[in-house]
Design a protein that fits this description.
Organism: Pseudaquabacterium pictum
Structural class: alpha+beta
Number of helices: 15
CATH topology of one domain: Glycosyltransferase
Pfam families: MGH1-like_GH
Strand order of the largest sheet: 5-22-23-27-25-26
Strand content: 25-35%
Radius of gyration: 27 Å
CATH class of one domain: Mainly Alpha
Protein name: Mannosylglycerate hydrolase MGH1-like glycoside hydrolase domain-containing protein
GO biological process, one term: carbohydrate metabolic process
Largest sheet: 6 strands, mixed
Number of strands: 44
Mean pLDDT: 97
Low-confidence stretches: none
Helix content: 25-40%
CATH architecture of one domain: Alpha/alpha barrel
Distance between the termini: 69 Å
């Protein structure tokens, strides 16, 4: 069997590529598939691959040899990623670490929390629940010897590991809670003593993590958690360029994907506490989850765009930026955070390129392909799941075609692909790309098992609910039946057989086939299948479909642009404006900025203290006539294309510091009147590079009055600082915001913890690793800031 894939229309050098699938039946009844791709492979790899079906593994039999081969390839990719030891140059001196788990890909021999979490949620948990559970528990940790849990954390709790990362890791990044997606999926698969044992350890890890994040990353004013976007953790790929020099700003910002992961963690912890008989804890965390759902919908939803913003500023009143990411959008849908109408709108308006949807939109100017200008198959798999949930066959079908094309042409499930051509290497990237990337593998497995065959295990049982689109029906080939066999659930063996509807006409538009009937071992069933309904031996589930139904077929498609053009205003955002000066004059506070180059006319929006105060400016200057005297207002500028509507990231924030008092930490300061105050530290932390490490300095800043009573306190962060040549400049920490009555005060600093305090990092080779925990920064001064009173 041979299939042809056309090139991107905007690529002048493009050509048709073909994939051929040949099948050999082996004596034991399994098949050997030989795949040949005409496309040049990444890093000069072979253009042929042979895959043997495993007798005890899931397999697909359909009218299409290519369809069957690609599923077998995903199972084989998962097998190749199944290891007895993992290793990374940064840990254990680069020597193997015993772990019967999964490695992340051909080029990535370690296991990272978020990669594993999303992979397990998409498919690994049902493919190999025991190995998945072992991998997940490897990403939890107790404290190092001699370290006791910090105040406010349950004594018996552990922590989910936030891997090395931006500014020294947690809580600049807080998406370790994505672990909860995986834990839920594993719990749904396990049974008996194994399930209870995993549930106990999962509860301990979530208890410690949730309570620590509440202390270190939760903002009561917005109701959201701080921290960078989940997965989009290469700062300049998705954030403003200036952020690498001010990582405390990224720590204080809020991200859609990360907050939805916090919601999932809170929900799961509430369920586990309820099952353990702790009604008070269950109610507490369920209440936090409900409040967080409301806050996410309130802050991130943009009425004018009818989409959820990907991230916000770090202002006390956060600005939801006109930046969008597919993972955050899809997670908001599949989690149920997004109400049904908003879920459908957000997906329908997210832009799609011909061979898949990019993981962020619009694209960033001047940034090579990796997260920017890229398709990531695992995110595409989440988009497919979300589209099925809202009943959009156009988006679901497009996602399925994207996954199949990428796997077929590359003879593996790649880490990422260039967003227009769908190639594993085009123009300046992807900068890094690995075969059999774990979450891509799981995404393909889940797309077939869940979307096509309807296999979905939840806490209440087995659901058979395929969302078979015309796109997937074409991929199955011209025939009457397809079977997914080799499935296992709680000691039972199952297969799902589809009675396929007729092939759609070539000109037929997107639609899906509603399920007419499901039978289990010959008996019609309605609703969820419980383990007690299954036979001790083999179980056969059959599914019959009705005629195709269009449903919601909206899909936003990007313009066909030159694949080599890195600045087309139809798909690229403007660059970030640069503030040149901010001066207080008799006529008001004058802000002047430089307009970035862009291929269409620009207009500018001004924000003060998180609120829009001027919109649609043509000239790069503005005068604030409403500034309050004695208040440290913060200003930021945003550029917007007049034709495209694309918006830049915000400029680096600026403020007049005439309302900022600088003093030594521990010195007394006086507030003449009651009102809102911000406290921040001027510091240096050069323990490691800005893009990695575990030594973000995480401290408790406490304010005491003249009587020695603590009147305010909170966690502040001092992430690693970008060097300036051979020196390290001073930067500002995150801000502690509080209300203080008139009076005399002083501030003191106490230790909290960071990821270096965990036993999991005892073998880490960098600062805070084998040499012992490190949670330190050089404090040059305390700054007391008079904030605007917005009550």
């Amino acid at each position: 069997m041979q299939q042809t894939f056309p090139p991107y229309p905007g690529d002048a050098s493009g050509r048709d590529e073909t994939v051929r699938a040949d099948v050999t039946l082996r004596p034991d009844g399994t098949r050997r598939f030989t795949l040949q791709s005409s496309q040049a492979q990444r890093d000069g790899a072979a253009q042929q691959r042979s895959i043997d079906e495993l007798p005890d593994a899931p397999r697909v039999q359909s009218p299409s040899a290519l369809f069957d081969a690609l599923f077998a390839m995903a199972v084989d990719d998962a097998r190749l990623n199944s290891v007895d030891a993992i290793q990374d140059a940064a840990y254990n001196g680069g020597q193997p670490i015993p772990c019967r788990g999964f490695q992340t890909g051909e080029r990535w021999h370690y296991v990272w929390t978020r990669d594993l979490a999303y992979a397990a949620h998409l498919g690994l948990a049902w493919l190999d629940p025991e190995r998945t559970a072992t991998s997940l528990l490897f990403k939890t940790s107790g404290w190092r010897d001699g370290i006791t849990p910090r105040a406010g954390l349950p004594a018996s709790s552990t922590q989910i590991v936030q891997d090395t990362g931006s500014g020294g890791s947690w809580p600049v990044s807080t998406d370790r809670v994505s672990w909860a997606w995986a834990a839920q999926s594993v719990l749904d698969m396990l049974d008996g003593d194994a399930r209870q044992a995993f549930a106990d350890r999962a509860r301990a890890a979530l208890q410690g993590t949730v309570e620590a994040d509440r202390l270190a990353a939760f903002d009561p004013a917005s109701g959201l958690y701080g921290g960078e976007q989940s997965f989009l953790d290469w700062r300049v790929q998705s954030c403003a360029p200036w952020i690498t020099d001010q990582l405390a700003r990224m720590a204080g910002a809020r991200a859609l994907s990360t907050n939805v992961a916090h919601f999932q963690a809170l929900q799961l912890l509430a369920q586990l506490s309820d099952a353990a008989g702790d009604a008070a804890a269950a109610a507490r965390h369920a209440g936090w989850a409900a409040d967080l759902r409301t806050a996410i919908d309130r802050v991130f939803w943009l009425d004018e765009a009818q989409q959820y913003a990907s991230l916000t500023s770090d202002d006390g009143h956060p600005i939801a930026l006109h930046k969008f990411d597919l993972l955050g959008t899809a997670l908001a849908v599949v989690s149920g955070v997004a109400p049904p109408q908003r879920a459908a709108e957000a997906l329908a308006r997210y832009p799609h390129a011909p061979f898949g949807a990019p993981v962020l939109a619009p694209q960033q100017p001047g940034v090579p392909v990796y997260h920017n200008r890229a398709i990531w198959p695992f995110v595409t798999a989440y988009a497919l799941r979300a589209a099925a949930q809202v009943g959009n066959p156009a988006i679901a079908g497009h996602a399925f075609d994207s996954l199949l094309r990428g796997a077929a042409l590359n003879l593996s499930n790649m880490e990422n692909l260039e967003w227009l051509t769908g190639l594993p290497q085009f123009d300046d990237g992807p900068v890094i790309n690995s075969r059999r990337q774990l979450w891509s593998v799981a995404g393909y497995l889940g797309a077939v098992a869940e979307s096509v065959f309807g296999w979905r295990v939840t806490g209440d049982g087995l659901h058979i609910a395929p969302f078979l689109t015309t796109a997937a029906r074409r991929a199955l080939g011209d025939g009457a039946a397809a079977t997914l066999s080799g499935l296992r659930w709680r000691g039972h063996r199952l297969e799902i057989a589809l009675a396929l509807p007729p092939m759609p006409a070539d000109a037929a538009g997107p639609a899906h086939y509603p399920v007419l009937q499901v039978t289990l071992n010959g008996q019609a069933i309605n609703g969820v299948i419980g383990p007690q309904q299954l036979a001790a031996g083999d179980n056969r589930i059959t599914v019959a479909f009705g005629s195709p139904v269009p449903g919601d077929t909206r899909i936003a498609r990007v313009a066909t642009v030159d694949a080599m053009d890195r600045a087309d205003a139809r798909v690229f955002a403007p660059d970030v404006p640069q503030v040149l000066s901010l001066d207080r004059t008799p006529g008001g506070t004058v802000l002047q900025f430089a307009a970035p180059a862009y291929r269409e006319a620009l207009r500018f929006n001004i924000y003060r203290d998180g609120h829009p105060v001027a919109t649609g400016l043509a000239a790069p200057t503005w005068t604030d006539h409403q500034a309050q005297p004695g208040v440290a207002h913060v200003y930021a500028v945003e550029a917007m294309g007049m034709a495209s509507g694309h918006r830049s990231h915000l400029s680096a924030p600026v403020r007049l510091d005439n309302s900022v008092q600088r003093l030594a930490l521990g010195d007394w300061f006086v507030r003449d009147r009651a009102g809102p105050v911000g406290l921040e530290l001027l510091y240096d932390n050069h323990a490691h590079e800005t893009q990695t490490g575990v030594t973000n300095a995480v401290k408790v800043l406490r304010v005491r009055d003249s009587a020695g009573q603590a009147v305010a306190q909170g966690v502040v962060q001092m992430p690693h600082i970008e060097p300036d040549g051979d020196r390290h400049p001073l930067r500002l920490s995150t801000m502690l915001r509080c209300q203080l009555p008139a009076g005399r005060y002083r501030a003191e600093l106490a230790d909290f913890f960071n990821m270096s305090h965990l036993q999991a990092n005892a073998s880490y080779g960098g600062a805070g690793g084998a040499g012992g925990p490190l949670n330190a920064a050089d404090i040059a001064a305390l700054q007391v800031v008079t904030l605007p009173d917005t009550r």
